[in-house]
Amino acid sequence: MSTTVGLTDLVEYTDWERQKWKAWLMTQGDSVLALSAGPHGDGRFDSVGDLIKHIFSAEKRYVDRLSDRPLTDPATIPVDRLEGLFGFGQRSRKDLRSFIDALPASAWDVPHEYNILNFTVQATPRKIIVHVLMHEIRHWAQIATVLRFNGLTTGEMHDFLVSPALSGGQPCPQTQ
């Protein structure tokens, strides 16, 4: 039995997070996507919708790189419609799962050189997939903070500890 968190555990956790966020955001309506991402960003993301699109497009583009395909242009993905954003997220996750399932075990730890933005990085497919999943986790936390600053909370825990990953689950009620 392995004693480490594996890729499938992080995929399971981020799937759970996506489902929870989508369900809650749908109760708020598309207008929640227009909330400002805040005044001190790096200029790439103006709104919550931009951040969600970034999560899914980064996943898609990294899988494109790993698969030696042309990079997907996310310009046509709407940032103002929840169904459109999360539909794109379903497609990006399907591609990620297909890549993970198809990559031979012997290829997971072989470094390759990739051009990302304005730099070149040498990394293994394993490191890139872990990066994609950690990237998503970080941005959902950022979105939660932006929403809190706007007076919106989900009222639910999003922690890995209470996720179904690694045979976990929702917290039990406290006993007196």
- Spatial shape: globular
Number of domains: 1
Helical content class = 40-55%
Overall pLDDT level: 91
- DSSP strand tally: 2
Detailed description of the structure:
The chain has 176 residues and is mainly alpha-helical. The chain has a single domain, classed as Four Helix Bundle (Hemerythrin (Met), subunit A) (Up-down Bundle). It contains 4 helices and 2 strands. The protein has helices spanning 7-28, 48-66, 82-102, 125-149, and strands at residues 112-116, 119-123. A two-stranded antiparallel sheet has the order 1-2. A hairpin with a 2-residue loop joins β1 (112-116) and β2 (119-123). α1 runs antiparallel to α3 (82-102). It is globular. The model has no long low-confidence stretch (mean pLDDT 91).
